[in-house]
Specification:
The protein is α+β, with helices and mostly antiparallel strands. About 20% of the residues lie in helices and about 25% in strands. The structure holds uracil.
Length: about 240
């Protein structure tokens, strides 16, 4: 990363707003390379210089990547005038400007969501050209059998004529309701719900389990998140990781 103003850099790391970090700097609470630095405009090189606030070293991260187990009832947006958003659920240690959900889950859908401030990464993950698979588990009203599996395989056509790419449908549990997993590589609006609707089934619960090769961490309760590491980012881009 290029040389940056000290106040801008600290603000980018979620230390506080530009105004708040300027105050910290002027108050002598910030050290650069072990020396107190009281000028907010002082230029630092995040690759070379060490920084500390109140003696706490700042671990510089150009971008942040979080895995969230999205709960039902919140919207996948950065801001919403009426509803709590997934960004409202991000704990304060990870709050920083520019965070957004990479992709969208409906308000009543739960499961794996990646939150980041890296637009290029999100673009790679979401670009229809990349055909990155997403795995969902759906609880549906109605029966799912070989006929529906074949229809998904052929490519569902919505009532409005929109054609979907072939998708893999697997039945996990049969009972009063059916639990099925569906693997798709596109992200049309309400896609999974509309695909089931096209074969006469109503989705009553929907959860995303996987993006590319990245699985939802089962340790995360709904609403919780954790950072993801580089290997996991590659998995989310569908890249196979060699374990050798
Ligand atoms: N398909 C849907 O119908 N809803 C989602 O939230 C995601 C995929």
């Amino acid at each position: 990363m290029a040389i940056e103003r000290l106040d801008k850099l600290l603000a980018s790391q979620g230390i506080g707003s530009r105004k708040e970090v300027s105050r910290l700097i002027r108050d002598g609470r910030v050290k650069v390379n072990e020396t107190v630095q009281q000028r907010p405009e002082y230029k630092v090189d995040p690759q070379q210089d060490t920084m500390a606030v109140d003696g706490e070293p700042i671990r510089f991260q150009r971008y942040l990547y979080l895995m969230m187990n999205k709960p039902r009832g919140v919207v996948s947006a950065s801001r919403d005038p009426k509803c709590p958003t997934v960004i409202d659920l991000v704990p304060s240690q990870w709050r920083r400007r520019g965070l957004f959900p990479a992709g969208r889950l409906d308000k009543d859908t739960e499961g794996l969501l990646i939150i980041t401030d890296d637009g290029e990464f999100a673009h790679q993950m979401l670009s229809p050209k990349k055909k990155i698979y997403k795995l969902y588990e759906a609880k549906v009203k109605g029966t799912v059998g070989d006929k529906e599996i074949a229809q998904f395989q052929e490519g569902i056509v919505f009532a409005d004529g929109v054609q979907c790419l072939p998708a893999e449908l697997t039945v996990v549990e049969r009972g009063e309701a059916t639990v099925a997993q569906v693997k798709i590589c596109e992200g049309k609006f309400h896609q999974v719900k509309k695909m089931f609707l096209a074969v006469g089934c109503e989705v009553i619960q929907l959860k995303r389990l996987k993006i590319g090769e990245l699985l939802l961490d089962t340790q995360l309760n709904p609403g919780e998140c954790r950072e993801i590491v580089e290997i996991e980012r590659k998995l989310a881009l569908g890249q196979a990781i060699s374990t050798k």
